[in-house]
Amino acid sequence: MGTDTKSYRPLAKSGITSVLRHDLPASLVVFLVAVPLSLGIAVASGAPLAAGLIAAVVGGLVAGALGGGAVQVSGPAAGLSLVVAELVTTYGWRATCMITLMAGALQLLLGLFRVARAALAVSPAVVHGMLAGVGVVIALSQLHVVLGGSPQRSAIGNLIELPQQIIHNHSHAVFVGLLTIAVLVGWTRLPQRLRIVPAPLAALFAASATAGALGWDVTRVDLSQSLSEWATPIWPRGDWHGIIGAVLLVALLAGVESLLSSVATDKLHDGKRSDLDRELTAQGVANMVTGALGGLPIAGVIVRSTTNVRAGARSRWSTVLHGLWILVFAVCLGWTIKLIPMEALAALLVFIGVQMVNVGHLRNLRGHGEIPIYVVTMAGVVLVGLAEGVLLGFGLAMLSALRRLTWITVRAKPESDGRWHVLIGGSLTFLGVPRLTSELRAVPAGAAVELDLNIDFMDNAAFEAIHTWRHDHERGGGTVDIDEIHDEWYAMAASGARMFPAKTPPRAPERWWLPWAHRRRGRPAPASPLVPAQHSPAEGSPAVPDLLAGAREFHRRTAPLIRPFLLAMARKQEPSHLFITCADSRVVPNLITASGPGDLFTVRNIGNLVPRLGAAPPDDSVAAAIEYATGALNIRTITVCGHSGCGAMATLLSGYEKAAELPALSRWLHHGNHSLARFIATESDGADDGPLDRLCRVNVIQQLENLRTYPQVDRLVRAGRLQLVGLYFDIGTARVHVLEQPPLTASPL
After folding, report:
1. Which residues form the SLC26A/SulP transporter domain (predicted)?
2. 49-58 and 24-45 are packed helices; what angle lies between their axes, rounded to 10 degrees?
3. What is the CATH architecture of 575-738?
4. Is the peptide bond before 526 cis (omega within 30 degrees of 0)?
5. How many angstroms separate the CA atoms of 456 and 425, rounded?
6. Quick check: 669 and 659 in contact, CB under 8 A?
7. What is the DSSP letter of 554?
8. Segment 497-525 mean pLDDT
9. Is 582 known as a binding-site position?
10. In this predicted structure, what is the pLDDT of residue 497?
11. Residues 285, 310: contact at Cβ < 8 Å?
């Protein structure tokens, strides 16, 4: 469920109560997760163990207090471990701390210049591919430690050496590592009430206790030695080009990961959105502090941030307090760390590395054709190196974007009346001229052609190709009628007008599907039989009656085209679908299904709810529509269509708080209680964008089951004469999804 995040400010009495009730427990949960992860990342980075705890403390106290997100948690990030390990090998640990400090100064400068949004221009496919590659490298290297051996210098070397490690090493270290991984894997399968302790802490405790009780010969973590080795940062020695490159790499990777984590965290709660420039500035200050104190580089991390939100955090106090608990633990209870076997930390890193290869990201990227970018980036990081892999992925992303920007659509097909219809869409540049001319040559000489140009850019080469073909075709006895849908690029070029080098912003065309506000021209529409001209408002008046103006627009443009169809169906309707959807004004059934008059028998209500047969309070409006559709109209499909950001579902999540002064609405929404119960009983599969989005989807599936409580519906479904379909309309992306539904076995109540 979403949280109501609040800004960081002096706490009033009610604020203190909220902190004690919500943020304090959440901070303890995040603290228990952060300690083992920080130690493990320090091991993977080749840094002193204390460096991980220092970074976690600074991430909580500094980045948490100054950051732009209320619930984001910062600390050492696994995605930076390969960079740090290479820097430690090249320059030494103290010089690496100076590089971290300078990277923080660069982040601070970028944040002050308010360029944080520019970091979001990096393709998520590159970022996720980089993290997956880092995860593979970490898992392969630390798996050798788990098996009682030593990691090799490269991922390929680790992979080649792995069979020998598996065959020849069967020491106590192997048992500790396998036990740790077994607990981590099995912990997620336990009932929720038994998972009070975070999985990493439970795994390390089980491994440490078992190794101690059985007297296993393992390597122990020694934090005291790390603390005794602390010294101030020193200036790195070597080629200054390499040093500058290292500073840029740490600053950019940590900054991009933090900003993407902020954006992702915003989807988990309903509070104030993150200030990305402030977040980048805070990350810069935190990295300067951690570099000066001898800590690892800091970034916002999604795993701890997600844990923070799910634990109930409502303000940045949870993040700050978790840093305080880590500090108290390091000072007062640091001696307990020496009980942890190093092999257990290595096993924890193997588990983290495997989790970094997130299959859910592949599902999101597949629809956009960006899986090759992900794979190339991951392979580059594993086979060549982190910086090289990121550059390979970024280069492929740029080439892919260039290809899409210059990709054109050309379709030429004959119509039934002998005319040819040609559609050209996209950005017309010299790169598309070969395909353009090839398709246009398919139009036979002498044909009458309707050419639709739906383009947002046209260079001179593309104009010359179309213009030359048009003249040649007309000289051969054909005709060419050009209709420019998007912008008048061709007409301007043909008239000799000056063409601007960049794309023009799209002009809102006069199309029926545009909202009224986008079609106002500030002039009265011509009179119609429905509304006499003398009742039209004055020109430029802000009080234009949109509904009446829309009716005039219908009479003028649409009615002549649709009148023959309506005349044929004036005496009888024969819809094929019963379409049940929400009353939300942004959901237009005929638009999102590309249907016309006579196709959909539509029922709309708040929340697209189908009250179960005999439900209380009784409602006959939906039941009457179902009876009439199945009994009199013989419809073949019943579709329930939900949508993103549904206010009815948000009210259910709020416990009816948002409908406190709307008694009729509250009574109606009680029909959604089954959806809420189903939401609580199931867990997210990763396909949704947060609790509200998941409830909106779950609600559609529940309404399909509610339909089966009507005997006529259930009988027709069982006979194969009626199909139930669940749709979900994502308003922000204007995409319609077909929801997969479990087997519908409900029977009439």
Report:
1. 20-375
2. 140
3. 3-Layer(aba) Sandwich (3.40)
4. no
5. 8
6. yes
7. I
8. 52
9. yes
10. 65
11. no
Q: What residues contact 232, with CB distance under 8 A and at least 6 apart?
A: 94, 292, 294
Site of tokens 């629809």: 367
Q: Do the Cβ atoms of 212 and 339 come closer than 8 Å?
A: yes
643 assigned ligand-binding residue: yes
Known binding residue 714? Answer is: no
Confidence of residue 172 (pLDDT cuts 50, 70, 90): confident
Q: What is the DSSP string of 216-284?
A: ---PBP-HHHHHHT--------S-HHHHHHHHHHHHHHHHHHHHHHHHHHHTT-SSPPP-HHHHHHHHH
The answer to whether 667 and 617 have CB atoms below 8 angstroms apart is yes
Within 10 angstroms of residue 118's Cβ, the number of other Cβ atoms is 13
Encode 11-25: b = buried (16+ Cβ within 10 Å), e = exposed: eeeebeebbeebbee
Handedness of CA 281, 282, 287, 293 (dihedral sign): positive
Q: Residue 435: its pLDDT value, please? A: 87
177-195 per-position pLDDT tens digit: 888 889 888 887 888 777 7
Q: Tell me the C-alpha distance between 177 and 146, whole Å.
A: 5
In the numeric block, the tokens 């398709």 are attached to 439
What string of DSSP letters covers 291-315?
Answer: HHHT---EEE-HHHHHHHHHTT--S
Of residues 356 and 233, more confidently modeled: 233
Q: What is the pLDDT of residue 505?
A: 46
pLDDT beyond 90 at 702: yes
Residue that wins the pLDDT comparison between 247 and 231 = 247
Residue 646, annotated ligand binder? yes
CB atoms within 10 A of CB 330: 19
Report whether 11 contacts 316 (CB < 8 A).
no
* Total count of residues recorded for the chain: 749
SS3 411: strand
pLDDT for 289 equals 96
Tell whether the model's pLDDT for residue 17 goes beyond 60. yes
Which of 685, 707, 709 lies closest to 697, judged by CA?
685
pLDDT digits 0-9 by tens, 22-77: 888 888 888 878 888 888 888 888 888 889 999 999 999 999 999 988 889 999 98
| 676 alpha-carbon distance from chain centroid | 24
CA gap 305, 692 in Å, rounded: 18
pLDDT digits (tens, 9 = 90+) for 580-597: 999 999 999 999 998 889
**Amino acid letter, residue 572:** K
pTM above 0.70, yes or no: no
Task: Specify the 3-state DSSP secondary structure of 681.
Answer: helix
Q: Would you give the distance in Å from CA 359 to the centre of its chain?
A: 14
Say how far residue 555 (Cα) sits from the centre of its chain: 43
Domain ranges of the chain: 15-358, 408-494, 575-738
CB 78 within 8 A of CB 352: yes
Specify the pairing of strand 479-484 against strand 577-582.
unpaired
The dihedral formed by the CA atoms of 137, 143, 148 and 151, expressed in degrees to the nearest 10: -10
